[in-house]
Every structure is written in C-alpha cells, then in structure tokens.
Amino acid sequence: MKDHERNYYQNEMSEGSLESLLLAEPSDSLSEKTRADSSDTDLEIEDAERSFGTVQGAELYLEACKLVGVVPTSYFLRNIEEPYINLNHHGLGPKGTKAIAIALVSNTTITHLELEDNWILAEGVICLAQMLRENCYIQELNISNNHLDTEGAEAICQMLMDNISCLRAIRLSGNNFREETAPYFAEALLGNYRVKELDLSHNEFSEKGGEHLGLMLANNETLEFLNLSWNHLRMKGAVAVSAGLRANGTLKILDLSWNGFGNEGALALGEALKVNNVLVQLDISTNHINNEGAEKLCKGLEVNGNLRILKMSNNPLTVEGAFLLITSIRKNPKSRMEEINISNVLVNENFLNLLDAVCQGHPELDVIYGGVGGYISKKPEQRPDPMKLIQNYLNERKLRLLDFFRTMDKDGSMKIPVAEFRKAMMQQSSILLDRAQIRELVQKLDGNRTGVVDYSYLKEQKPAQKPKEEEEEP
Question: What DSSP string runs through 82-111?
Fold first, then answer.
C-alpha cells in the first residue's frame, strides 16, 4: 500500500470506525478522573479523531492506551509489524482489548491474532467486531476462554453475518455460549462464505443448540473444519448434527468428542457416512458408544469412500466392537481409511490375525488399540530397531537413505504422506518389518504427527565417499 493510499485509508477509518470504537466505551469508563489523566498526554477525547488520523502503528497504539487508561503491552509494541501476534494470557481486559482494536483498524501486517484468556468480555469483543469490519488483513483470530457470553456471541455473529471481515479461522472455545446463542451462529454461518475453520468447543450447546447447528451444517458451503467437542450434544441434538453432516458438501474435519452421542447418535452418523463423500476426519471419542452403536456406525463405513481418520477412543467398546470396525473396512473396497483409534480397547490374537488379513488389501491402514488381552503383563517382545534394519540394508548395497526415501516420493516434494509411507513399507519385500515396527518407524520419522515424513534434511548431507581401493584404480 502506497503512502498516500495509507493516509487516505487511515483518515477514512478515523472518521468512521475509530469514532465507533471510542463511543463503545461505557459511560462510567470515561470518568472525570480518566479525562483528567488523559489530558497530560495531549490527547483530548474531543480531538481523538484528528489525532488518530495523523498517527499509525506503535504510536497509534500508545495514544489509544492513553485514551482508554491502560498500560501498553510491550510485546504488542515490539511485534505490531509482524504477521503473527500471540497475546494469550496477557490480562488485557476489555479496555486493553479496545486499545489494541483501535491500533489494528488500519494495520496491514497482522494476519493471525491470538487473544485467548484475557477476560475480554462482551465489551471488548464488540470493539474487536467493529475493528474487523474495517481491517481486511486479519485472517485467523483466537478469542477462546474470554467470558463472552450471549452478548459477545451476538456481536461476533452479527459481524460474521454481514460477511465484511476476511476471517477464515475463528476460535471461540470456552466462552459460556448456551443454547440461546446457537441461532446466532446458525444464521451467521448460513450465508458466510469466508470462514473455513470454526471452534465452538467447551461451550454448552445441547439438544436445541444441536438442531440449529445441524441446520447450519446442512446449508453452509464454506466450512472445512468444525470443532464441537466438549458440549452436551445428545439425542435430538446429536441426530440433527449428523443429519447436517449428511447434507454437507465441504466439511473435511469434524470433532464431536466428549459429547453424549450414544448409540442413537452413532446410528445417525452411520447414515450420514453412507452419503457424505467429503469428510476426511471424524472424532467421536468419549461419546458413550458401545458395540451396538459401533455396529450401526459400521453401516456407513462399509460404503464410505473418503473418510481416512476415525477416532473412537474412550468409548465402552470391547474386542467385538473392534472386530466390527475392521470388518467394515474389509467389506469396503473403496475405503481409504488410514487410522482407526480405539486405544482403550483390549484385543486378542484373533483380532490381530484379522487385522493382518485386512492390511493386505488396505496396507495404509493403522489401528491403534490398547493392548492384547492376556499378554499385557508379559514382557513385550523385543524387535530389532526398524531404522537400523533399513540402514544395514542400505549399507550392504552402498545406497543412501536419501535414495531410499525418493523411491516412495511420488511428486518429488521430499515430504511423503504417512499413509503412503506406511503402504510402501508394508508392500516392499526387501526389508521385512511387521506392523508394530512400521508404526515405530513412523513415530520416529513424524514425531510431531504432521501427517508427513519429511526427509528434506537429508538433501544437505554429502554422498558417501568411495572406498580408497576404488579411487586408486586406473
């Protein structure tokens, strides 16, 4: 942005949104004492528009702090020109948030703003919402755990409904949003075509809330990530969210863990998975789903051709439920399942034999289970380190580890998706590794669980030198 354009833009903001932000202060917050204190800064409230029109960046923030009567945050001052700002747990309060909002109206560098756990309250989020109507650069915002309540939800949703901001990701976890706020979110997101990631976890949506959110899911055409974990979605609410998933055509990741879906919700999810061909990851951990519910869910897994990750840990499943899940993958030639997490379930040798058979047809599949019943107390079988086996194989053939990875790298990006790596290791016959060794290998190569094996660091290593005998030959 050129200087004359920036000046024009900032002057426009000073006449509109800055005035709104100034007037957003409750009447008692601009007491005579605050006015007297601010007079020492040469920033009179009646001259605020004129003053803000001539300053920017750190200077603008300092003036805003003087105006609202708060101590400037040094971290924000130092990083105001950086794209990522993390002000989590800084105790800003609504006034500190207001000062930051004023400074951000014309900021063009910050794209990701973290404000979690700052007691922003509805008063502070109203200022943020007004700022976001003008700032077209912030794309990711985290205002989780800020006691926003119903009034704060209404302010955020009104801004989203107007579809003015450029937010693509917003995190609103733990803000005391109850049933009465669900219609706001449903209405705001029915027509919003910008927000792709939404976190509403750790709130209090229940049956009515689930019905509104389910309606939103059925009609929203933009969301790709939705986190509704740690709510109270059960019965009619669970069925409504599942029905919304059935009709949705964009959502890729859905987290429903720590709700109360139960077997009724599992049945509705199974019906949704028969139709939905977009969802990639589903988390229904800790949802009171037993073997009966797993059987109903499997009706969808038997035909779904897109789901890759299913998390079902901490449900009251037994090995019979585990059998049903694996069998559903065996029945489905279109299945692209890469991971099933039932980490609390004890399995048996029969299950392991079935899993080996299923992995012949689905080599990319990894099932995370709790252990093998009856063998937990025994000393685990010692297996050779898979990385050493690979290195020994390469040394014998005078090959480099870099070349080994390249044989599995289809696009030459030096980043192999974990599922493709697991599939390649299962199918190769040169280095004999079982499923447990391959899992251990993946854990080493993708320790941060990024979903890819990144071997780009090997590019900098020099190739092994030839033996001296070879170098001396004519």
Answer: SSEEE-TT---HHHHHHHHHHHHTT--S--
CA dist 178 and 50 (Å) reads 42
Q: What is the DSSP letter of 381?
A: P
Residue 402 parent element (H or E): helix 401-406
To 5 degrees, how large is the angle CA 389–CA 393–CA 397?
165
Sequential pLDDT tens for the chain (474 residues)? 444 434 433 443 444 455 566 555 443 433 333 333 333 333 333 344 445 556 789 999 999 999 999 999 999 999 999 999 999 999 999 999 999 999 999 999 999 999 999 999 999 999 999 999 999 999 999 999 999 999 999 999 999 999 889 999 999 999 999 999 999 999 999 989 999 999 999 999 999 999 999 999 999 999 999 999 999 999 999 999 999 999 999 999 999 999 999 999 999 999 999 999 999 999 999 999 999 999 999 999 999 999 999 999 999 999 999 999 999 999 999 999 999 999 999 999 999 999 999 999 999 999 999 988 755 445 556 778 888 888 888 898 888 888 888 889 888 889 999 889 888 888 888 888 888 888 888 888 888 888 899 988 887 655 544 444 444 444
User: Which 8-state DSSP code applies to residue 72?
Assistant: P
Tokens of 79: 């990083």
- Angle among Cα 140, 443, 281 to the nearest 5 degrees reads 45
Q: What is the CA radius of gyration of the chain?
A: 28
Nearest to 103 by CA among 137, 63, 71, 130: 63
- Taking the alpha carbons at both ends of the chain, their separation in whole angstroms is 65
DSSP-based three-state secondary structure for 199: strand
Q: In whole angstroms, what is the distance from residue 257 CA to residue 338 CA?
A: 19
Torsion of CA 397, 400, 402, 406, to 10 degrees: -20
Written as six digits, the tokens of 424 are 């390649």
Burial class (CB in 10 A: 0-12, 13-18, 19+), 448: exposed
| H or E segment to which residue 131 belongs | helix 121-132
Instruction: Return phi, psi of residue 283, to 5°.
Output: -115, 110
Single pTM value for the model: 0.84
Q: Is 459 helix (H, G, I), strand (E, B) or coil?
A: helix
Name residues whose C-beta falls within 8 Å of residue 135's C-beta, 6 or more positions apart in sequence. 104, 105, 106, 107, 165, 166
Q: Kindly report the number of other CB atoms within 10 A of residue 102's CB atom.
A: 27
The Cα–Cα gap between 205 and 182 comes to 7
Which residues are registered as beta bridge partners of 114?
Answer: 86, 142
17 in the Ramachandran plot: left (φ > 0), alpha (ψ -120 to 50) or beta? Answer: alpha
- How far apart CA 25 and CA 35 sit, in angstroms, is 13
Name residue 344's amino acid: N
Name the DSSP class of 260: B
